[in-house]
Structure to design on (512 residues):
């Protein structure tokens, strides 16, 4: 099993994710592609000291990147959408 | 804007005001600035201007606070001027800024206001105008100077005399008793103090082509201290002697000086020139003493910042090096203040008596200049505008009008010298 910091790669703070946060209270993270929902839930709860009430995940293919003739690919990655119990907050999404 | 102003000091033209901006106004301003920031800022993950206000406020907190401070101080300054009806002479200084979060903003404004110049008495002063007489001697002196300028140098034989120009090779050993090096060439006018006395004496004993070597004593007031009073061996080779020949004082000389037919015409022109100079000097003196008397009779305060600005202008004009500025400023402070006083006096009078130069005046002046130069007034105007000299002309016309007005109302007596 990967460590906590390998499970959660980084928070996703973008226009779309901040709308999701403000409208629906969702927190978006990039996570390890091999991590399952249970691992994600545990990692978030331990890292941020909050109670997680729901986890949804989606896999994304890495984009093809072309440098001249050669074609490469960005790594595939996984997004996790997390909802917290009422009153719990993760500071970094606060702006 | 809702601010509190307390006057702490009011002394002459200086004002020290304490300004306090209430917390609500500060917060409102912060809100406004953050919104403006949010609408233009570029953050990764967001299209420009689409980042949430809360995030922008957190990220750019310091920049926003700084901006808020600047805006508030500026607005408060405007408000202060409006409310206290101040006519400010120069940019204010802001001291003691207290800008803590959750606290009202307070700061001290240090201003200088334009003094109100009340010229109660501008008439009935007595000034004596004395025009220096142009005598035959001064004309002759001037012509002598012209002759000196036109003098020619022609080679002469024999030993040189005083006032001759000589070309010599001079050599002294580098160390006492050392070898005599190759002589360096010099052009010296004898008797002008260009060479030390001993060397000049030595030169005058030679004929062209001769070389002589002798011990010469350096004078006790020689600029280089290390060499004062020293005795050194000097070798001098006289190469050439040139003697000054003044042109004959005749009509031909007059023609060579300029467009004059005869010596008499030249004399008349020189006399006219000198007389014009004397008149101009006398007029300038009259104006100066008039200004002095009026400022003495009507004292008023001068904003120190204007004096500083005048000194800065002098520094610029005379290109004073950085390290001498302080001494220069101290020395010229009184001159600058006098000039500022004079300008303020003229401005006040020009305004009070509506004597300021009008567009018509400037146009007339340009027309006159154009006629003198036999060119098109439009061209003269354009070139003056390009050189940025129109304000200068306007100023000089205003000054002339003000002095004309003053001279009508004051007693000027001509005093023969």
């Amino acid at each position: 099993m990967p460590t906590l910091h390998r499970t959660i790669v980084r928070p996703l703070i973008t226009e779309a994710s901040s709308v999701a946060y403000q409208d629906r209270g969702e927190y978006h993270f990039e996570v390890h592609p091999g991590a399952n929902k249970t691992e994600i839930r545990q990692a978030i709860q331990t890292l941020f000291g909050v109670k997680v009430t729901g986890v949804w995940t989606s896999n994304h293919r890495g984009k093809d990147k072309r440098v001249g003739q050669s074609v490469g690919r960005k790594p595939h990655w996984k997004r996790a959408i997390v909802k917290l119990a009422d009153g719990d907050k993760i500071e970094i999404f606060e702006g | 804007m809702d601010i509190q102003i307390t006057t702490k000091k009011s002394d002459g033209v200086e004002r020290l005001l304490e300004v306090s901006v209430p917390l609500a106004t500060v917060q409102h301003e912060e809100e406004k600035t953050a919104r403006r920031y949010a609408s233009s800022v570029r953050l990764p993950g967001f299209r420009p201007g689409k980042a949430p206000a809360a995030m922008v406020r957190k990220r750019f907190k310091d920049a926003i606070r700084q901006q808020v401070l600047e805006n508030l101080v500026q607005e408060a300054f405007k408000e202060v001027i409006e409310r206290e009806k101040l006519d400010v002479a120069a940019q204010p200084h802001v001291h003691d800024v207290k800008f803590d979060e959750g606290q009202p903003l307070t700061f001290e404004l240090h201003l200088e206001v334009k003094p109100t110049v009340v010229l109660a008495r501008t008439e009935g002063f007595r000034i004596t105008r004395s025009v220096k007489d142009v005598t035959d001697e001064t004309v002759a002196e001037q012509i002598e100077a012209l002759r000196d300028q036109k003098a020619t140098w022609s080679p002469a034989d024999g030993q040189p005399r005083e006032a001759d120009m000589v070309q010599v090779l001079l050599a002294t050993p580098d160390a006492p008793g050392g070898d005599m090096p190759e002589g360096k060439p010099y052009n010296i006018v004898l008797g002008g103090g260009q060479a030390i006395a001993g060397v000049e004496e030595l030169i005058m004993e030679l004929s062209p082509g001769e070389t002589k070597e002798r011990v010469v004593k350096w004078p006790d007031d020689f600029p280089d201290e290390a060499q004062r009073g020293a005795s050194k061996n000097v070798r001098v080779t006289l190469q050439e002697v040139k003697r000054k020949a003044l042109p004959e004082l005749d009509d031909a000389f007059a023609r060579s000086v300029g467009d004059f037919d005869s010596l008499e015409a030249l004399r008349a022109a020189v006399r006219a020139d000198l007389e014009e100079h004397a008149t101009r000097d006398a007029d300038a003196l009259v104006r100066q003493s008039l200004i002095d008397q009026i400022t003495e009779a009507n004292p008023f305060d001068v904003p120190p910042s204007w004096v500083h600005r005048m000194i800065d202008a002098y520094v610029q004009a005379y290109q004073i090096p950085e390290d001498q500025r302080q001494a220069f400023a101290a020395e010229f402070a009184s001159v600058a203040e006098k000039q500022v006083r004079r300008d303020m006096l003229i401005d006040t009078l020009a305004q009070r008596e509506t004597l300021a130069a009008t567009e018509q005046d400037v146009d007339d002046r340009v027309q006159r200049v154009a006629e003198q130069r036999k060119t098109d007034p439009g061209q003269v105007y354009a070139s003056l505008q390009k050189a940025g000299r129109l304000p200068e002309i306007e100023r000089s016309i205003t000054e002339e009008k003000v002095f004309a007005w003053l001279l009508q109302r004051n007693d000027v007596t001509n005093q023969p010298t």
Q: What stands out?
A: Helices of chain A lie at 4-7, 15-24, 37-48. The longest helix of chain A spans residues 37-48. Chain A has a mean pLDDT of 90.
